Amino acid sequence: MQDKYWLLTLEAPVEIKDRLEIFLWEYISCGWEECGNLYKIYFSTQVELDEFLKKIKKLFPYVTYTKDHIKSGNWADGWKRFFTPVKLNRFIILPSWEQKDFLTKDDLLPIFIYPEMAFGTGHHETTKLCLKQIERLYQLSEIKVGDTFLDIGTGSGILGISLSKLGLTGIGLDIDPLILTNCKTNIQLNNVNNFSFFIGTTQAIGNSTQYNLIIANILLEPLINLKSEIFRLLKKDGFLICSGILIDQETKIISSYTDLFNDPVVILREGEWSSILWKRS
Fold first, then answer.
1. What does the alpha-carbon distance between residue 24 and residue 29 come to, in Å, rounded to a whole number?
2. Which residues face 151 on adjacent strands?
3. Residue 265 and residue 37: Cα distance in Å, rounded?
4. For residue range 17-59, what is the model confidence (pLDDT) as tens digits?
5. pTM for the full predicted model
6. For the sheet containing 109-113, what is the strand order?
7. What is the C-alpha separation between 193 and 205, in angstroms, rounded?
8. Apex 27 CA angle, 177 and 78, nearest 5
């Protein structure tokens, strides 16, 4: 682990928060802390921070910012204040430092995440929505032990790990090599051996396999660009969970997918975000 990190804190006017969050989703795959209208983003080097800041200044001139050079211990302490357990139906998402003290109770499935600057701790609405969709499918026996899945935009691996703990077997994909160490760490923390991941596009996994379930928690434009590839990789009667979509983008994604999929089975919403479930007929 590095001794020091660079911290960029952004303060955004309320009226541009939605636009800024969409931008962060696209450019900061390693995640950020959010408190009100403040956004804290960590970088390994000052060069990375400055390059990102150039984009912010150009696109969001009314956003103010501060830069700090911090020790890794301070970063970890900040995450310990920010990362509180999240309970979603049968899942409970816990930080790695609570693993040794966690006592299994009821039928809760713990998912342990080490927040090494990787997105996907269960706090963001899109992650929650995907987990709710997974839980619903499992309760209805639409997905079951032994089924296969593909997690596009796997990030920290949280969704793939949750499916693995339900007894499914699958693959995670991400185009960002920065997730490598964190995703591997989280897989080991959760002791799952039926989930692996690759860096690259859907081309990295070949053409011969189809999946019972595909999750794509990415952004609107990649979802539209990948729709034919997703359709090809999804088994007949398989399910697709899409997220990373704002509520006001629902019409566009549904219109785009109409030529390949029937009407959505379920649309879930939380805050300003949406998750759409389709079934391939």
1. 8
2. 172, 215
3. 34
4. 878 887 887 666 556 777 778 888 877 788 888 988 999 999 9
5. 0.78
6. 86-88, 91-95, 109-113
7. 18
8. 85
